[in-house]
Amino acid sequence: MSKAKGKTRRQKFGYNVNRKRLNRNARWKAAPRIECFHIRHAWDHTKSVRQNLAEMGLAMDPNKVPLRKRKMKAMEVDIEERPKELVRKPYVLNDLEAEASLPEKKGNTLSRDLIDYVRYMVENHGEDYKAMARDEKNYYQDTPKQIRNKINVYKRFYPSEWQTFIDSLQKNKMEVE
């Protein structure tokens, strides 16, 4: 909705606002958030990106990564070497290497419902996929091939659990007979 005519006021200057702090906070908030925990906590906002990364022992440009040089010949000794950049924060590089060496966490799992469904079907029907498809617990009306694929997925995700489950089924069959 539009405002009534003559009711708009011009903005007045706020004399009690600290402009220096306002600009500094705006600049800090506008800067992109560094996702890496180790780099974010070692970052110095007063320095440039290149200086920060050099202090941590990282390279801004992957083409300019210092590589180990081969053994120098007598003629090459005379060439001046530029001073190496000092790594003032080696703990960042060590933390990143330690984090990278950790084994990758298995993030994908199957739902509890699917696990129970597969176990129920195998318990009651064994390898008879057509009987599984006709079972009343087959709520989603899966075809025999779909059920077989679900069982194979369970086998692939939890091979040790699958083996213990099959062993327990065989043990129960032996006890019944």
From TrEMBL:
GO terms for biological process: ribosomal large subunit biogenesis. InterPro entries: Ribosome_biogenesis_Nop16 (IPR019002). It comes from the Eukaryota. Keywords: Nucleus. It is found in: Nucleus, Nucleolus. GO terms for cellular component: nucleolus. Its main location: nucleus. Belongs to the NOP16 family. PANTHER family: HSPC111 PROTEIN-RELATED (PTHR13243), NUCLEOLAR PROTEIN 16 (PTHR13243:SF1). This is Nucleolar protein 16.
